[in-house]
Amino acid sequence: MSLQIFGMPVSRGVAIGRAVLVASSRVDVAHYFVDAESIALEVQRLRQARDEVAFELESLKGELPADAPAELAALLDVHLMLLRDETLASATRAWIEGRHYNAEWALSAQLEVLARQFDEMDDEYLRERKADVEQVVERMLRALVGSGGLPAGASAHGARDFAGEDPLVMVASDVAPADMLQFKRSVFTGFVTDVGGRTSHTAIVARSMDIPAVVGAREASRLIRQDDWVVIDGDAGVVIANPSPIILEEYRFRQRQSELERARLHRLRHKPAVTLDGQPVELLANIESQEDGAAAIDAGAVGVGLFRTEFLFMNRDGDLPGEDEQFDAYRAAVQAMRGLPVTIRTVDVGADKPLERMTANELRHEYGLNPALGLRAIRWSLSEPEMFKQQLRAILRASAFGKVRILLPMIAQISEITLTLDALKLAKDELNQEGIAFGQVQVGVMIEVPAAALMIDRILRYVDFVSIGTNDLIQYTLAIDRADEAVSHLYDPWHPAVLHLLRQTIKQCTAAGRHVSVCGEMAGDPAFTEVLMAMGLRSFSMHPGRIAAIKQRILRTDTRQLDALLDDIMVADMPEDIIRQHLAARAAH
Question: What is the pTM (predicted TM-score) of this model?
Answer without folding.
Answer: 0.73
